[in-house]
Amino acid sequence: MRKNRIVLVAFLALATLMVFGAGYGYGAPAKKIRIAMLMASTIDDMAWSQSMYEGLKAVQKEMGADKLEFVTSERMGNPVDAGAAIRQYADQGFDIIIAHGAQYQSVLMELAPDFPKTTFAYGTGFTTAPNIFAYDPQAQEGAYLLGMVAALMSKTGVVGIVGPVESGDAIKYNYGFQQGVAAGNPNVKVRIAYTGSFGDIVGAGELAKVHMDAKADVLTGSSQQAVGAARAVAERSGVYWMSTDMDQASLAPDHVLAAQVYHWEKVVKDMINYRAQGILGGKHLTLTFADGTLELRFNPKLTNKIPKAVLDRVEKAKQDIISGKLKVELPKAGGK
Amino acid sequence: MKKRTGTSDSLLQAGVLVGALVLALLVGAGLILLARANPITAYKAMFTGPVSGKYGITESLVKATPLLLVGLGIVISFRSGILNIGGEGQMVAGSLAGAAVALAFPSWPAIVLLPMTLIAGVLAGALWGGIAGWLKARLSVNEILSTVMLNQIAFQLNLYLIRGPMIDPQEVAYGTGCPQTALLPRSIWLPRIIRGTRFHWGLVIAIAFAILVYIFLWRTTIGYRMRASGAGPQAAKAAGIRVENYQILAMAFAGGFAGLAGIVEVLGVHHRVLEGLSGGYGFSGIVVALFGRLHPLGCIPASILFGALTLGADMMQRAVQIPAAIVMAIQGLVVLFVVGSDLLIRRPDLLRSRRMSGGSAGVAGKQGMARQGKGVSN
Amino acid sequence: MATISSQGIIVGILATGIRLAAPFLYASLGEMFAQRSGVFNLGLEGIMMMGAFAGFMTSLGTGSPWLGVLAAIGVGAALGLLMAFISVTMQAEQGISGIGLHMFCWGLSGLLFRVYLGFITSCKGFGPWNIPVLSKIPFLGPVLFQHNWMVYFSLLLVPVSWFVLYRTTWGLKVRAVGTTPQAADTLGVNVNAIRYQCVVLGGAMAGLAGAFLTVGQANMYADNITAGRGFIAVALVYFGRWSPVGILLGSLLFSMMNALQLWIQVLGISFPYEFAVILPYVMTIAALAVAVRRVWAPTALGKPFRREAG
Fold first, then answer.
1. How far is B364 from chain A (nearest CA, A)?
2. Which terminus, N or C, of chain A has the lesser number of Cβ atoms within 10 Å?
3. Neighbours of chain B (3+ CB pairs under 8 A)
4. Bond before B65 cis per omega within 30 degrees
5. Which residue does chain C place closest to B322, by CA atoms?
6. Contact A206 C20 (CB under 8 A)
7. Distance (Å) from the C-alpha of residue A170 to the closest C-alpha of chain B?
């Protein structure tokens, strides 16, 4: 009799497991998720676009290529071409279409109602729709921390920002960086200059050189042209570079002090999970330090150059940002 | 002006054009192989895509609209002897001016606001082109120099305006700062011809203008004088035509059409001014004008074909996942081959001449010139 | 806090300006020869891109920026040959074929970059070569004599081009072919051959200009690294009225304005930066408009040569 009871219990346990398992998708084979990503630049730009591409690759690696398929469409800066691409992907039944750039908001808002079963996503953005997610890296958080490091590490007291154009997450980044510098050392001067385009890497390099000629010894900058500036920094000794979007240390291993890294994996997984629950959009997904989607990464090669006191201060600031005690301001209406 | 050609000549001409396209695509196939993709699958996607279903055809027509408008302007300027490469900047100027008007008076009735917006776009583009024309006529500043500079100036002014004074208040409120204007009043949006697609009435406007341009160039005195200025400036001057003034006018027309293309794109597709609106149309329009044999009516099929070609190339890129750079390379190849074979299209007799060796001008000249007198003008 | 002196600022602007002028000098001087012979090449931007790419990849692969320069010259010359064939032999409309060449080269460089490399990295470039003694002169030293050899060479090409154009027989033929091709032809000059030579030369120099951007300036390559410089170079030929000295002045004016706007921004002088960025373009037009003179252009510019019945 005892043997039968054991068998019964085992059978019941197994049955329960199977019921719950089916609920979690273990029972039925999972449908392959198809994601399409559009971008204005290319997947190898070592900045904004590549960081999202790397994120998608990471998610695919984790889930398995049989569960997640993704395709990319590059050089879609022209809004007409982008619209055509998005429409085609939607027609082809892609589950999630990521239009990676703030400028795609307009075209998505227009297209989304025509494809109510598709999830669209874009960023940096705020406005959402029932089937549009807006992702929004809080670049000012990491910028603040990088600014602190810059101020504390600068010997000349002059720090330079190489800006593309004032839009998207460049605005948040520059503003946060300046606040961080002020918090680190109010006597340090921050200078900003812009090249006027997102893609002129030679121009960014020249701007970096001018910064350095004007005595700046820590530089930073965003967007894909920043690699030009990082490279220019690498040509001089005694100058450091703070990178954002991605860890650009491979470009200038002796000069990149720290990086704010965007971890898009969680954002992508969130979207997939929301979809599984029937939520196709409507959420404003932020990247912050609090949930690990933003990471402050120090270059291991150079950490011995940074005094412990500096590292401690930065760590404390980071914890304060995470806990909400420290709020990094965003620019007001029309602010610079 | 054009020499009459017999039917066998016309067949040869068509054959050469087709041959040029085929050669371009063959080289393109080599590039596709280089990108480790299958050219057959790729081309299949490229050719079937733009004509399959509601989506393909309508998107081709959407792309054709600005191409046609810019192309018409180029036809006018080219026929008058001046090459307008400032189309990009003129489109931007037109889109900005039109948007500014529309955003300034949103409550006005569409019957007034729409024409005003369109006219603002045309005038702004005409002004932008006219500056280059005036600089050339009065101060001898070469138009290639001025239009290249003016393009850059227009881009930066555009960025300044849509990031600053003309930025969408929503973007400011949310702190996302995307460079774009607010949505234009819904009342003046160009309605969609087919619901669920982006195909809008702009194309009809463009085709109407194509017919008007044809009438203008071939049936009016001004048009005749402009064509005379282009075909033979010396002779025209001798006949008392003020060539320089007509060249200013030509640049203004070219700019006006590009400006119209810009505001039509805004009203029909985007409904606001964004970055990248000019999307290379300023240059592609030149190619379309060439494909259309510099005839306004020829620009109609040329713009649709080129639009379909570009769309097809994009679709191909997505289908076989090759780098987007290939699209640009194939477009360039098509232009090179078609433009390179232009001589054979104009002078099909050269193909029949047994004495022609490698197309060298000197030899062909002896035979052809004797039959034809002076060379055919562009 | 470290500050920069006003002399430091002026030196900085001038030195930056001279460095920025180099790619324009190379490309414009080459284009000048082509246009002097009657052919204008709007595809210069594309050739620069391919030159930049070839220089970068070769330097990356072999570790020698010198080989990179050679590769860029070779690629540029080959593309020049293509342009010559289309414009001279096939007598195509030069403006449009130039744009086609630009599109093709842009696409090709992007494709090859992705296929053969696929990620952004840096290559070996040329470091500054301070000219002994001269580089120590206060003020003039840092401005003129602390650049890399490619900058010096670009400046050297100005008098060299002047000499070739005005003091050699070949230069005379080039000028003849561009103004009165019919007359030159009757005198036995092979018009098309001269045009070929000039366009190939122009292509080679555009390739060199592109190589400067990668191995002489940025030490890396990315899509659209030329960012419109090729078109500006063509415009500068018109600005300089087809003379090497004029082109030098034009390149310097444009580049100095560019350097000025960079410094204005960096020094924090409050100015909408978009206006700073357009400063060089506006100044170039203004300079030309103000210098009112009857412009002389190679008369046969843009017109394919067809031998007329005698």
1. 44
2. N
3. A, C
4. no
5. C111
6. yes
7. 9
What is the C-alpha to C-alpha distance for residues A243 and A262, in angstroms, rounded to an integer?
11
- Compute the half-sphere exposure of residue B102: CA atoms within 13 Å on the CB side of its CA: 30
Q: Does C111 touch chain A (CB under 8 A)?
A: no
Residues B309 and B56: beta-carbon distance below 8 Å:
no
B161 CB near a chain A CB, below 8 Å? no
Amino acid at B273: V
Q: Cα(A177)–Cα(B190) distance, rounded to whole angstroms? A: 44
What's the longest Cα–Cα distance across chain B? 73
Look at residue C294 in the predicted model and tell me its pLDDT: 52
Report how far residue B327's alpha carbon sits from residue B309's, in angstroms, rounded to the nearest whole number: 10
- What fold characterizes domain C6-296? ABC transporter involved in vitamin B12 uptake, BtuC (1.10.3470)
Place of tokens 């898009």: A264
* Predicted confidence (pLDDT) at residue C310 exceeds the cutoff of 50: no
Measured over the CA atoms of residue C241, residue C247, residue C251 and residue C253, the dihedral's sign is negative
Q: Does B327 touch chain C (CB under 8 A)?
A: yes
Mean pLDDT is lowest, of A5-14, B102-111, B126-135, for A5-14
Inspect the interface and report whether the beta carbons of C308 and B378 lie closer than 8 Å. Answer: no
A214·C262 Cβ contact <8 A: no
Instruction: Identify the CA nearest to C227 among candidates C73, C49, C94, C87.
Output: C49
Mutation for C interface: B23, B326, B333, B336, most C CBs within 10 A: B336
Over residues C164-178, the pLDDT tens digits come to: 999 999 999 999 999
- As a residue count, chain A comes to 336
Please indicate whether, in this complex, the C-beta atoms of C115 and B142 are within 8 angstroms of each other. Answer: no
Closest-approach residue (CA) in chain A for B59: A84
Give me the interface pTM, i.e. the ipTM.
0.88
The domain locations on chain C are 6-296
What secondary structure does DSSP assign to B141-161, as a single string?
--HHHHHHHHHHHHHHHHHHH
Positive or negative, the CA dihedral B294, B299, B303, B305 is negative
Residue spans per domain, chain B: 66-278
